[in-house]
Amino acid sequence: KTRHPTMTSALDYLSAARRCEMGELAQLLHTSALLRQLGVLIHALQKERGLSNIVLASGGQRSVAARQAQMAACDQEVARLHAALAQLELEAFQGGHGARLFSHIAYVLQGLDALPALRARTTALGLTPDAATAAYIRLVAGLLAVVFEAADSATEPGISRLLVAMFHFMQGKELAGQERATGAAAFSAGPSQAPRQQHWLHLIDSQERCFQVFADCAPAEPLALWQHTSSHSPELAAIERMRRIGCTAATGQVLDAELSGPWFDACTARMDAMHAIEVQLAKELQLRCAAQLQAAEAALAQPQTLQQPSP
């Protein structure tokens, strides 16, 4: 049985604290690379969900070829996710965090295994738009749970704050994606439905709450990019106009099906701009983890520089 050196001094315990900190940072550094690929896959699945809604709501008359192309793009990102998972150093993850993270990953992989069956039922027009949307929402929720686990595990205040910003931004973008799918289905289906309108309004309100938390926690550069996107995006006026049409129409009033395309395109441009911010947040996370780990390693190598950890 291996015996560890007896720890008797304050310096011994400060060194041990730094080694624990380095272990946590190493976990986060590995997780941050995975989060970046998860964000890319979520973005691809969100677009596939919206196109699937148009196909189903139009009875297979619209967006069939675009959906096929998007499914191929999603498959490429699924393959990249598997490659990213293969690169994980499992021994870097220990304790409750590792157990929870791996449980979420297992759930995600099960959901991805079920994706071909969901696609086949959509192709056969065997689902309602709402049922298809719900299935994609469950899959994306599983992917976001991995992001939440990373945010919940961070102890370093600056990195924890960044992860909170990142999670809420991704959650807000997911709600924007659900809004894109809801609007696409509404315009493609024709007659306005009061429950769908109420859900649409709920999605608008919920995503704004997420973006407010992001704004409260985000680093300066991603926040400035978001503020610019929110105030200067040319498609926002079109989205607001079509929101008013879809959300204020009388029950049973026939919506213009020709708006499904412009609605989807405007929302997609907005979400592509959001995805650029997601990428920037993931890059910032990797840089911060690497810098903190390097600093901790340097401090451990020079015991005289060790200081009491922040509470």
Sum up the structure in keywords.
single chain; 311 residues; mainly alpha
Structure overview:
- The structure is a single chain.
- The chain is mainly α.
- Helix content is 80%, strand content 0%.
- Helix 3 packs antiparallel against helix 5.
- The protein is elongated and about 80 Å long.
Topology, please?
Blueprint: H1 10-57, H2 64-86, H3 95-113, H4 115-123, H5 129-153, H6 157-189, H7 194-217, H8 220-232, H9 235-248, H10 260-301
Helix pairs in contact: 1-2, 1-5, 1-6, 1-10, 3-5, 5-6, 6-7, 6-10, 8-10, 9-10
Instruction: List the uncertain runs.
Output: none
Number of strands: 0
Q: Which percent range describes the beta-strand content? A: under 5%
Separation, N- and C-terminal Cα atoms: 34 Å
Biggest sheet character = none
Rg: 23 Å
